[in-house]
Amino acid sequence: MRILLTGSSGQVGGALRPLLKEGGMVIAPSRSAFDLSNPETLAGALDRFKPDLIINPAAYTAVDRAEDERELAFLVNAKAPAAIAEWSARHRVPLIHFSTDYVFDGSGDKPWREDSPTGPLSVYGASKLAGDLAIEAAGGPHLIARTSWVYAASGANFLRTIARLAGERKELRIVADQTGAPTTANTIADAVSRIVLSNASDLSALFARSGGVVNLACAGETSWHGFATAIVGGLKSRGAGLSVETIIPIATADFPTRARRPGNSRLDLSQLRERFGLTPPTWQDALSTELDRLVTGQDEQAVPAMRA
Ligand SMILES: NC(=O)C1=CN([C@@H]2O[C@H](COP(=O)(O)OP(=O)(O)OC[C@H]3O[C@@H](n4cnc5c(N)ncnc54)[C@H](OP(=O)(O)O)[C@@H]3O)[C@@H](O)[C@H]2O)C=CC1
Ligand SMILES: Cc1cn([C@H]2C[C@H](O)[C@@H](COP(=O)(O)OP(=O)(O)O[C@H]3O[C@@H](C)C(=O)[C@@H](O)[C@H]3O)O2)c(=O)[nH]c1=O
Ligand SMILES: [Mg+2]
Fold this sequence. Notes:
By secondary structure, the protein is α/β, with parallel strands linked by helices. The protein contains 11 helices and 12 strands.
C-alpha cells in the first residue's frame, strides 16, 4: 500500500510516520512538494504520488494568528482538504483527516458527540469546520478523527510552553474554566495506525460502514490549569529543577487572547469504542508516558497503552 502522509514535520504526522511503515510505503512530502496553501496544485501532485491511502494531519494550527490570517487558514484547513477529498472521491482512495474541539461553541458541560451542533468561536475553528464539511460533501471514503489539546514531547505545544515557563518564572497564571482532554500525538497515531493496519485490505468498505467523524482523544477531563499543574508535578517528580512555586487558576477573562476558545471542549468517546473497539488511555497515563520521553530525550516512539 502507498500511504501519502502530510504534515510529517508536525506532532501527529511525526508520530504517525514510523507506525505506518508496517502498512507499506509511506510518502511524506515536504510542504514545498505538497503545499496546502496552493490547493489547485494538489490534484496534480496526487496523480503523481498515486496513493492508496491519504492521511492528512497537516493544518494551519496557530489559533490566535489565524484571526489575522483568515485567508491562509481557510486555504490550508478548508480549501486544501476539499481538493484532496475531491481527488479521493474521484479515485475511491480512502482519506483520513483530523478535526478539532474548536469547531464547538463550548457551551454547557456535556461531552460533544460526533453529531452535536457546531458553532466555532474562532477563525481556526471555522476553517477546520469548513474542511470537515467539504470532505463530507465530496462523498468519498473518509474518516475524520476529531481530537483536542494535542501535545507531544517535541513540537510547539502547551506541554513545552509550560515546561519552559516553569523553568523561568516563580508563578504561572493558567485558565481554569476551559475543560477538555489533553491528548498526546502518540495516542492519536496509535489509534489511527491500529485502524489502518487491521483493516488495510479494505479501508474504503470500513469507512463506508463506520466512517465520517469519530472523536479520538485521551480519556478523562481537566482544565488547562489542571493540565499545567500535572505537567509541573510530573516534571518535578522526575527530578527537573524548576523555578515555579505557584500555579494560580484564573478565568478566561483574565487571560486575554486574540481568538476566543471554547469553555467546554469535552469529547464523548463512546463511538471510538463502539465503531473501532478502541479505548484510549487516560490523559494522566498518556502524560506520564510523554514526560518520560521528554525527560529522557528519548527519540523512539513510546506507544501509549491503547487497549484494543
Ligand atoms: N495541535 C492541537 O492542539 C490540535 C490539532 N488538531 C488537528 O490535528 C491535526 C494535526 O495537528 P498537529 O500535528 O498538532 O499540527 P502541527 O501544528 O504540529 O503540525 C502542522 C503540520 O502541518 C504542516 N503544514 C502547515 N501548513 C502547511 C502547508 N501550507 N502545506 C503543507 N503542510 C503544511 C506543517 O508543516 P511545517 O513544519 O512546514 O510548518 C506541520 O507539518 C490538524 O488537523 C489539527 O487541526 C486538533 C485538535 C487539537
Ligand atoms: C501559556 C499560557 C496559556 N494559557 C491559556 C491560554 C489558552 O486558553 C490555554 C491553552 O493555550 P494554547 O495557546 O496552548 O492553546 P491553543 O493553541 O488554543 O490550543 C488549541 O490548539 C488548536 C490547534 C486545537 O485544535 C485545540 O484543540 C487546542 O489544542 O491556556 C494560560 O492561561 N496561561 C499561560 O501562561
Ligand atoms: Mg497553540
